[in-house]
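Appendix C. Worked example: Alanine racemase
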Amino acid sequence: MAVITLHKEHLAYNFERLDYFFDLKNIQWSVVTKMLCGNKLFLKEVLSLQPTQVCDSRVSNLKAIKEINPKVETIYIKPTPKRSVASVVKYADISMNTDITTIKLLSQEAQKQNKTHKIIIMIELGELREGVMRENVISFYDQVFQLKNIEVVGIGTNLSCLYGVLPSTDKLIQLALYKQLIEAKFNKKIQYVSGGSSVTIPLIFQNKLPSGINHFRVGETLYQGTDVYKDAPSNLLKQDVFTLKAEIIELIEKPMVPEGDFGTNLEGKSFTFDEKEIGKKSFRAILDLGILDVDQTNIFPKDGDIRFFGASSDMIIVDLQTNEKNYKVGDYLEFSLNYMGTLRAMNSSYIEKVVQ
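Step 2, the predicted output written as structure tokens:
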């Protein structure tokens, strides 16, 4: 079985560094846990760092978080499906919303559960994912403020996730100005201006973050140690919070080029081969890991001499060339992962999860 390992010292280092930087700017930040896919072993490690808030996009994950620590504040970070209204009110202290019909249902459910449900209303600033259109913001808030058992605690936006629209000082100033406009119009205090995510962090160090932005939602930079704005490792943080290893289950010297008539493989791909490789051989290792578990384009061998030959549903084949390092069946190959690689591996029930 393949294994994904959470290196808790690297995680703690990144958390402490981020917490320090955000505290300097009087910014509250929330740890996004969706990458952990509800795994309680890993969630316990995150919660042991005592974050003020945690965010997730799956109600089942928020339930797992509340079972570990009922007191931690939880945020549901996508528009609420109608079928999930009751569980969102039960397990999310705050939810992010864009639809008035849904918020009315949240109001009704909050009354049933004898709770005040907090919401952050998301505004569209160009990414075209979730968000109320800017010209409708005032009328939208007017309707929401009239609802029982609903407390509007914030205004927010999402950038970079769908089309890669980067945050800018101008866009975030707009968000902060909407907060001021709403407060003046309705005489209501808005606690959070949630304009920050991992991709926004570099604006802090460039002194380009508007002072009104006081809330961040951070996942990738915490877990991957990346500067998401530049799509590069951050020299301030640790990488390899997660590593993956997979066992070699076959290792045989075989021809470089397959023989026979070619059709398409299970993914519908067809292949061509360099005629210069005909007659050549290399050591091919089959790993106990496949497309069902990971996408090979998002995992990276620690041994730089290894390259991928291909993959099927539950096996990946790698090229060990002349096998100078003398790998053998039963050995493990280790990989780094990017964000999508980690997310896919965490979602596989066939990969063991370990804390080290």
